[in-house]
Amino acid sequence: MNNNAVLKLNKEIESTRIKLHNLISEKKYDLLDSEVIKLSQILDKLLSQYHELN
Q1: How many other CB atoms sit within 10 Å of the CB of residue 39?
Q2: 6-47: pLDDT as tens digits
Q3: Residue 49 and residue 9 in contact, taking contact as beta carbons nearer than 8 Å
Q4: Contact 49/8 with Cβ under 8 angstroms?
Q5: Of 29, 33, 41, 52, which sits 20 to 30 A from 21 (CA to CA)?
Q6: Quick one: CA dihedral 45, 48, 10, 28, positive or negative?
Q7: Distance between CA 10 and CA 50 in Å, rounded?
Q8: Model's pTM, two decimal places?
Q9: Which helix (H) or strand (E) holds 14?
């Protein structure tokens, strides 16, 4: 994977992390909320992709 793809993945991870943080706050820290779970799963997949590169 080239540097541009890694940078794009990094930006996507950071953006998703911020969205998840905001959503958790919005949902009053209900970690079992379906939206929180879905976004958390997306972030987990992105992080797995990143770790596969290293």
Answers
A1: 19
A2: 999 999 999 999 999 999 999 999 999 999 999 999 999 999
A3: yes
A4: no
A5: 52
A6: positive
A7: 8
A8: 0.89
A9: helix 3-26
